Amino acid sequence: MKIAGLGKNSEQWRAKIRKEKEKVDRWERKFQETQIRNEDLEKSLSDSQREKGELSDRVTQLERSLRQYQNRNSAIELRASLGKIEEMKKRIEELETTLQNCEIRIECLEAIESHNKEQLHYFQNHVRSRDHIMEEAVVQIREVVDHIQTLAVQADMLSVKYELESDQGQELAVLLRKIRMLSNRAKLCK
User: Fold this and answer.
1) Contact call for residues 190 and 145 (beta carbons, < 8 A)
2) How much is the pLDDT for 16?
3) Alpha-carbon span 185 to 135, nearest angstrom
4) Residue 186 vs residues 29, 145, 175, 183: alpha-carbon distances, Å
5) In this structure, what are the phi and psi dihedrals at residue 120, rounded to the nearest 5 degrees?
């Protein structure tokens, strides 16, 4: 049987329909497979987006933790720096105290040095004054020695003269000998 102008019999049409059904079935399976794949992809996309959200939240948490850690580290470093600054302040105060003590000691030493200089000048003037007095005394002693020597010579002459005359003359002669001995001692000291 031929259907109007189609040129095929029913068997051929059945075979063609079967083929077409097979094609449709194939396309339906492909469609279902594609739909399943799309559902899987959508599910995977949804999972990926959820994971992305979770990762984004985790990154935000990590960033917050990092900031807190940095702030904590900054605070620790700041405390350590403040501790070092306090130590340095104490050391500076100690050094300033030591410096002030040294300055006070220097002032005391300068005052002592000034006093010692004044005493040195006083003693130098005192020594000069004594030297001058000693020089004058030496000059006077020399004059006395010269005078005693003159007297000794005169006493020698008088002792010879009076020795022979009387007891008083002999006493005078002894006295004149003593003057001569003093004169000789004065020569030795000269």
Assistant:
1) yes
2) 85
3) 20
4) 161, 6, 17, 5
5) -60, -45
